[in-house]
């Protein structure tokens, strides 16, 4: 009786050991298989740089950002002058009013090439392929998006039955950008030849212009060097035109205003990015083109 019971215990222990051994082997196999799969996924396929240059010749202007985010090689291609020269030659079309700096005879140097090509595309490619609709003015950027920007320039112009007020607002550099700027100044990138070959340099980077159209002239205090803290748009007496109030201060902390700009009889406004054709660059003469109809006037009639 005892011998038979002991034999059964031995058999059960052997079977348990066998099952434990098989389970541990299965776990080890799974681990090795998963590690092999992970290494295969991490390795991937590294194509030669020439392949990425060939692929870049078929990239449309609106897909440049997505192409640059594929990998390091594709990003490197987008930072080269060869890529931007090819993009310019492919999509350049003659249009009236194109600044001389953006014409083929001037597009031969590397310094600031990226910004010039982008500006040219907004004169030619994007202006032709954009979809026009009646409510496009409703989707434009609001002046509130310019808060915490520093005013680096302001001026005004007189048009036909209109006054145009311009405020050039630049985005304040962050702490990380300041450290990068110091390394560029103190590092090897201060070499004059490297500066001349810098494709990505852009003096207007981070700048936007607020253009306000008014029926009458308004006397404004100087706000150059101050930071925009608040924006408010209200109706004037009679509920026909608007009043735009811009609060400026010495810091980006709200409720510490030092100067306030008040523009009366406002009929429209527009926020211009540096690549917009009507952005007043130094190499182009800005001509004021009145719209066919003011959207606010129509809505209030």
From TrEMBL:
Biased amino acid composition, Basic residues: 15-32
Tell me which InterPro entries the record gives. TMEM183
Identify the stretch(es) annotated as Disordered. Answer: 1-42
Q: For this chain's UniProt record, which GO biological process terms are given?
A: regulation of protein stability
**Signal peptide positions (record):** none
Annotated Gene Ontology cellular component terms: SCF ubiquitin ligase complex
The protein, known as: Transmembrane protein 183B
Gene source species: Melipona quadrifasciata
